[in-house]
């Protein structure tokens, strides 16, 4: 297996692999997961040179961080980078309870993440959301104190818009913005991309396969506990329309001799080159076979003709349905237009 090349994540961020591993699916968000296969996948990712591992302290109510801590036990600390989101509240039944971004809550969340992950510092620490009314300057100021104390190396953002990026950057350098970006989720292009380029901020793109919808493998069914059952894009006529886009994309992929998933991942990476932004796609593989497929995307160089064919197959704005339910969309600062 060819080792992944490296890239700098923004002007002030860490050096990471050109693809990162999103570990959320290993903690039940897509239905039951297999612990041993999850651990094996994490180890395979590291062996392939995938150094950036993304998690959230609310994934599985801490399960994801503990799992990653187990997988990384004995691995030299300099061999990987941890990106951790915080702030989302959960309840014992697995429900969601808003966000707590008070300074004391941030310090408490960080302390627990350090313990669960079994590390002395976190490479990139970021609020999972900054909903309306959040004191951006206070949140980033608190994180800056944690950087100064040595518990955090870099500050990131997640799902925020252009104005919030500017406000945050004025308080402390920002390594990267984590935001959903894929062939069928192209919202960041118009207002957010120019700000990232101007300020030298990188981007970690999650949802590059739209939670499996455009992976070429989605069967149309979800297991019990799979949060995609609430997603508008996976419901009724929407999912049928979106899977029709996948079939159009499959024709382009087949002509190149690559998979649908590899095409979609390579397209995201190509947009970084096109727009002058350091974009690291996060792949949510929770099995070794899916990881191997995703790693193959790093070897794909899409030509201008390929990109034009992909655009014809999946035009901008072609997706049916919003990317989150309405209550979750309301918390997305990134969806507010300037």
TrEMBL record:
InterPro entries: AKR (IPR020471), Aldo-Keto_reductase (IPR050791), NAD(P)_OxRdtase_dom_sf (IPR036812), NADP_OxRdtase_dom (IPR023210). It comes from the Bacteria. One of its GO terms (cellular component) is cytoplasm. Residues 19-313 form the NADP-dependent oxidoreductase domain. Keywords: Oxidoreductase. One of its GO terms (molecular function) is oxidoreductase activity. PANTHER family: AFLATOXIN B1 ALDEHYDE REDUCTASE, ALDO-KETO REDUCTASE YAKC [NADP(+)]. This is Aldo/keto reductase. It comes from Ancylobacter novellus (strain ATCC 8093 / DSM 506 / JCM 20403 / CCM 1077 / IAM 12100 / NBRC 12443 / NCIMB 10456).
